[in-house]
Every structure is written in C-alpha cells, then in structure tokens.
Amino acid sequence: MEGMIASLLRDFEDGKMSRRQLVQTLALAVVAGPAAIVAGAQSPPASASAHVAAPWKTVWLDHISYAVSDYKKSTDFYTSLMGWEVQNDNGKNQATLKIGEVGGIIIRNNRQQSGGATPDGPQRQTGQPPRPPLTGVINHVSYGIQPWDTDKVKAELERRGLNPRPDMVGDNFKSYHVFDPDGWDLQISNKTSNSR
After folding, report:
1. 115-144 pLDDT, tens digit each
2. Would you say the CATH fold of 137-196 matches that of 59-134?
3. Domain ranges, ordered by start, for the chain
4. What fold does the segment set 137-196 form as a domain?
5. Does domain 59-134 have CATH number 3.30.720.120?
6. Distance CA 9, CA 12 (A)
7. Integer Cα distance of 159 and 79 in angstroms
8. How far is Cα 131 from Cα 138, in angstroms, rounded to an integer?
9. pLDDT tens-place string over residues 51-101
10. Is the pLDDT higher at 48 or at 136?
11. Which residue of 25, 102, 114, 170 has the smallest Cβ count within 10 Å?
C-alpha cells in the first residue's frame, strides 16, 4: 500500500494527475485498503499504473457512510452548514442525507467492538471474518459550494465558531478547512466541477 501511495504522489508531483484525481484515487485506495493489503502481502504492486484496467467506469458517488459519536448532532451540523437534505431519519441512530446532486451520506452512531473502535457496520454477516485493523484514514473530504464569496464564507464559518483554516492554491482555488463535531476535517471550496 505504501508503494502505491508513493507512486501516486510522484505522479501528482510530476503533473501526471490533478489534485482531484489524487484525492479520489487515495480515497478509493483507503476503501479498498484491507483487501489490497491482504493481496499485496503476496506480491505488492510496483506502481499504481501496473494495475489491470477496470472493466467499468465509476459514474456516480452513491453514498458515503460516517460513523459518528452523535448522529443527530452531526446531521444538524451538516444540514445547517452545508444545506444537505435529510431523506430519512430513524430517530434512534441513523439518518440518510442528500448532498445536492452529488450523491448521499449516511450518518450513523459508531458501533464499538469490545476493545476499541472498529465499526463493522450493519452489513456484516454472521460467519464473516472480522474486519482487519484499519490502517488508513481519509485525511479530509472537500465539497464545492455555490455561491462562493471568500470573505462571506470565512465570516459565516467564524460566526458559527468553526475557526476556518484557509487553503488557497493558486489564483483560482479557494477553500477553508473546519472540523465537524467529531473532529473530521471538512474542506469547503469554490470548486464545483472536475476542472482543475
């Protein structure tokens, strides 16, 4: 896994991939991480470009699942700050939200296994082996918003007590990082399309 990440970073630094492509590829690598680690133990890939081409193309982000300490608090945070729409809320431990026309998010209370936080989620079937220890973390997720006014976005984040940290790359990319109620790094930017 480390070799693949190093290769991706080299490709990014050499201008062979955009920042968006790097982040998307790293996010997918994190999701596929445990399986990739098991497979990689036998023969680690020399580079990301050595992989066989996928037989399909990803065309939609269906949903992201957040395991949080208080699903209601996180749901309120994201609906209030980001304008996401609650699609359903079971009133106990989980809500599904719509993220504009991008996709969806499931926010659910974290399930703790004995001995630590390693959520397996509700889909784990009896008889399946437990999830391998998590070794990767998604650093942050960036969402593009409209309308964008750098000063007004900063002022609104400060008004909410979120202590925005600027992340301005080049002349055109503007963004701020804030922490959500569980300490996840949320980046809010002016980019609303794939163009980088």
Report:
1. 444 444 444 556 778 878 877 778 899 999
2. yes
3. 1-52, 59-134, 137-196
4. 3.30.720
5. yes
6. 5
7. 16
8. 17
9. 788 888 887 788 899 999 999 999 999 999 999 999 999 999 999 999 988
10. 136
11. 114
123 Cβ contact partners less than 8 Å away, ≥ 6 residues apart: none
Beta pairing class for 165-166 and 175-179: antiparallel
- Phi then psi for residue 41, to 5 deg, are -65, -25
**Complete DSSP assignment for the chain:** -HHHHHHHHHHHHTTSS-HHHHHHHHHHHHHTHHHHHHHHTTS--S-GGGSPPPSS------EEEEEES-HHHHHHHHHHHH--EEEEE-SSSEEEEEETTTEEEEEEEPPPBTTB-----TTPPTTSPPPPPP------EEEE-SS--HHHHHHHHHHTT---EE--BTTTB-EEEEE-TT--EEEEES--SS--
What global pTM score does this model have?
Answer: 0.63
Whether residue 108 contacts residue 96, with contact meaning beta carbons closer than 8 Å, is answered with no
* Beta carbons of 113 and 121 less than 8 angstroms apart: no
Instruction: Find where tokens 């998590």 sit.
Output: 134
Question: Per the structure block, which two tokens stand in for 190?
Answer: 């002016």
For the four alpha carbons of 66, 70, 72 and 77, in that order, the dihedral sign comes to negative
